Each structure stands twice: as structure tokens, then as C-alpha cells.
Amino acid sequence: MTDIGLGGRTRLDRDRLLRLLQDYGVHLGVAVLLLVNIAFTPHFLSAENFRTQAVQVAPVMIVALGMALAIGSEGVDLSVGSVMALSTSLLSLYLGYGMWIALLVAVLGGIAVGVANGALIAYIGVQPIVATLALMVAGRGLALVLLPQLKDVRDPTMASLGSGDLLGIPYLVLIAVGLALLVAFVVRRTTFGRQLLAIGDSRPAAKLAGLPVRRVLILVYVCSGALAAIAGVLATARLTASDPTSLGNLMELSAITAVVVGGTPLSGGRVRIGGTVAGAVLIQLLTATLIKHDVSPSWTQIAQAVVIILAVYAARERGRR
Amino acid sequence: MKPNTFFRRISDRTSGHAAGRASGRVSATTLLAAGLAASLALTATGCAKSEDDDSGASGDSKSGASEGDAGQVASSPSAGADTCVIGDYGAKKLDLKSATVGFSQSEKEANPFRIAETASIKAEADKRGVKLLTANAQSQFSKQISDVQDLIAKGADLLVIAPLNSDGWEPVLRQAKAKHIPIVTIDRKINAAPCKDYVSFIGSDFVEQGRRAADRMIAATGGKGEVAILLGAAGNNVTTDRTKGFEQQIEKKAPDLKVVFKQTGEFAREKGQQVTEQLIQSKPGIDGIYAENDEMGLGAVGALKGAGKKAGDVKIVTIDGTKNAVRGIVDGWIDGVIESNPRFGPLAFQTLDTFTKGGEVAQDIVIEDSAYTKDNADSDLGKAY
Questions:
Q1: How many domains does chain B have?
Q2: Which residue stretches belong to region Disordered (chain B) (predicted)?
């Protein structure tokens, strides 16, 4: 804006390049990582490997979808990891009635946390980061009260949900892709999606325009809670055990990273579902690459930090629009 | 660059809705939110029916301490080891039966080790008819400090502490010193002078556990091939010690056995499973996996099952001795489990008893951990916690 030193034309090109990089950098990153792995990682090009990566990324991706909605409304949902823990506790407690009822209860638990989050934010006016932080602490606590320690899940339907497949594609991946398409549709084509983006862009303006700000905000956090609960159920099915002490730990950070790396600005008003999915895949591939090459765990953390910093840098550039 | 606009935008928004209408409706809505959370908690347990309700298998994890023969045995300390008597410490003799013992647990009883540890202390206090005060620091060190201070204030004559950290105990130690309260620490050591600031430390030798796991792995693989290590949480002395012992022993006894993969599973089953999935993709020929706790080992078993491997294809050795892992040996998936015995009750109270009667106790009491293999897994399953 005020860089006088640069000539008009070069500046335009640089801007366009930067914009392109911001919008498609994550896809570029995924492509680069794939090529690097194909070249340097033994046994990388196998169906079994891609299956493993897809199955591992599915829960993160589902949580990130809900997080993208929250961030799009200029908020954030820190409670997603705890919701996963809560959902696994509830699932274990109600599995005696059969998987479907247990699943329903688990998702209802996630919705209840979402309602609490949304009510705190929309009605009391608590900052999203504070409101969801409160529910993050409370949710994990509640999960541990309900189920104090790891418990095995022996239900055969759950086991087949975790490891079964349809035409070679694991159920987990099918569900994740289905949810991604659904959320993308909601954001792009429904009134709710447009209202969400309008509120994210400017809440006062949305209010003045007569949008149902509170209802939409509550619905946003309900979606996020429900998606996190589904992710918790799927993670439980995969592990065939309910482990509320560790399930979903630091999940909120992975999800935020996926969303931000995927090009959704933290300032709200814009949601990129395709980018979010790619962001989750990018982090999964990065972790997988480092683990497969047996890089020391401390370096893995540093590499993840670098990706986050790059993403935040990009987000800052976007904030200037 | 216009950082100002960015900040102004933020501050506009914060003052916009946070401060604006916070006051009036707060109490009513807070009540509503609290009520919502409470009702959720109530309904959640109200008509719950878990899988175990039918089979009646629940609660077997809690019976840990009642197993008669499962208490700890101290590995006999060498003759020259430092000991402590009551005169050196500056406390008064007293009768344990009429004393009050305070127990401070470090982490919440959410994993089998902590559950069995607390249960064992409680069971032994019951057995001896000693009055026991307990506190749990929920993994917060500042809470543990105030917990112990509370225990002292409530009139504990003797203290058993499972420390969360090794450092930072000075305020508590000074307070205990002023009241001449003997302290025994279990499972982790504190950095202070034994027989001056505290009486004894009772615990396992984690390096030795690593060495014994290595012996087991060498026996299982025949001392040749490639093995992977699933590390515990980073920056934890249990992780470093168990890794050190394992690697030293492998290097010394079986140079043909190569450690080709070392990644953290953070002591959790899910992470152990994910890391093992990556491992068997990139190194399908791996011969053995050493998991630094049972949970990660069980995660590895899950990953191997998912990848279509058969029991015994990859040798797994773990440390801890939980029921699930010992069952894994019976099923043939796990080759050996090195025990880390959490039942400190009998030994801790015996130490306090001897000490308060004026007897001599060792400053470092290293307990003897047993091990589970194919030979004893079935018969000793009851001893696992």
C-alpha cells in the first residue's frame, strides 16, 4: 500500500504471485511432499500406505471442518479435543444399548457442548476463545468423571466401523469425505452458510442487516461440537478402546493449523473447505514423512511449528486486504 | 505496512461486544449454562449402560491391591548402602498404629498404575489400622505443594509422597522439618538430602527395567535383526531411563540387533498405534518393537492386526505389567512384559514402622520388579494390575 520504492508493474506481479501462493500454497505443499516421499521414502507408493494416511487423517479432518466454520464466523472452538474425549466416554457408557444409540448419545453430548459454547458467545458476549476454553477444561473433566480410565470396546459393529471398508475404501474415509462435501455445500449454497460468512465479516453489520446473529452463532458451535463428537466416535472405533485421558489431546491445535494452513483467514468472513481438507492432509503427510524417516521427535515438533508460522505469516498478509 | 489498522480493528471488536452488554444478563445466563452442564452430567450417567453391565467383568481393574501375593519385595540393598535411623533424622519415636499418615498422590487415578498405587496404600493403611489422609494433586505441582502443606496442617505425623516433580520441594521440606515429620517418597525421587530432608526413597530402577526389556527382546529375536522403540513422553525421566537401559544392553549383548526406529508414542495407545502403522508401512521387515509402556504396546498390537500381521510376526516387549498387556502375552501378540510394580503400600508402611520404632532403614530402597513371559502369563494374570 505504501511501498513507494517498487514500480507499479512488478508490484502487481508480486501481489498476484503472493495471492496465488496464499490460496494454493497448501495444494503446492501437498504436491511437493508427495513427490519428495515418492522419491525418497521406501514403500511409499502402495495402496496400503495411502489407506493408512487417509484413515489417520480422517478424524483430524472432520474436527477441522467444524473448526473452519467457527473460524469463518470470526471465532474459534478450543473445546473440540475435549468434545472428542466426552464423546468417547459417553459412547463407552451407552454401548450396552447397541452402537447406534451410543453414537446418538455421543453426538448429543457434542451438541450440548456446542449449545453451551454458542450461548456463552452469542448471549453473554464472551469472547469465543475464552468461552470455548472454559468448555475445553470442563469437557475433559466431565469426560474423566464419566469414564476415569481407558476401557476396551468389544462391540463388533464398532470394530467394523473402525477397520472395515466399502469397495476398498475405509468407512472412516468415506464418512470424512461425505462430511467435507456436506459442509462445503452448506457454506456455499445455503442461507445459513451465507449468514455465517456475513457475521464473520462484520458482526455489527450483520446485526444491522437484520440477520439472526445469535441463532447462527449457536448453530455454528453446535455443528463444530457435533463434528468433533463424530470424530471422537470414529477415533474410538479405530482404537477399539475409549481413552478419555488422551483422546483429542491437542486436537484443537491440529485443527486450527489445518484450517489456517488451508487458507481460511482468522479474521473471519471466508471459509475454504477444500483448503482445510488439504491442510489436514498436508500436516498428516508432513508427520508421516518425518516419522517414516525416523527424524527425532523434537525435530518433528519444530517442523510442525515452522508450518504453523508460515501459515500465520500468510494469514497476516491476508489481513491487510 | 499499517499495523495500526489491524490493532484498531481488534480493539473495536473486543470493546464492541465483550464489555458492552456483559453485565445485565450475566447471572441468569450463567445459571442457565451451569444448569445445562449439570443436567448433562446427570442424564449422562442416569441411565447409562456400558458393555460390561451385561458381562459383569467390570471392576477387575480396581481389585489390584487386594491380590495377596502381589506386594513389592525390596531387592536386598548391598551391605555398604546408606541407611537412616530416627536419631539422625531428628524425629521422635512413635507407634505407627496410633499415628496419622498423610499420602499425597501426584497424578489423578486415571491410569492403572496410579489406581493400583493409591489402592495399595489405602489397603495397607486399613490392614494396619492406621489413620490415612489422602490428597491428589491432579498433575499440578503447585497443588501438590499445598496438598502436602494441608496434610501437615491436618495433623499428619508421617508422610508418604508420590512426587510429581523432583525439584521445588524446599518449602514443604522446611515445614516438615520444623515439625519433625518423617517423609518417604515413592516411585519418583526428590532432589534433597536423604536422611536429612526425607527418610527414604522407594521405587523402581527404570534403567534396569530398560535393560531387562532388552534381554527379553534379545531372547525373542535371537539377537539379530531390526527393532523399533516406541518412546514415552518427551522430557520425562522414565522415558530417558528406559531408553538408556535398553540401548546400552542391546549394544553390549547383541550388537547384531539394530535399533532402526525411535519415535514417541507419548505413553498413549492411540499414538502408539498411529506411529506403528507408519513404521510397518516404511519398514515392513521390522523384527521387534520395544514399547516403553503397555499402552503403546497395545496400540502397536492394534496396528499389526490392522495390517494383517499374525501374532508373533513382530516381537513386542513392553514395560508396566497391566492386565491388558499380560492378556496380550496369553493371546500370543506380546512376547514379554517387564513389571513396574505400583503396589507401594506394604513396603512403604513397613519402612515407616521400622523407622519410627528406631530401626535402621535404607535410604534408597529399590524394589524388585518381576516379569511376565509365555511361561507365567497365564498363571500370574491375577497379579497384573
A1: 2
A2: 1-22, 49-79
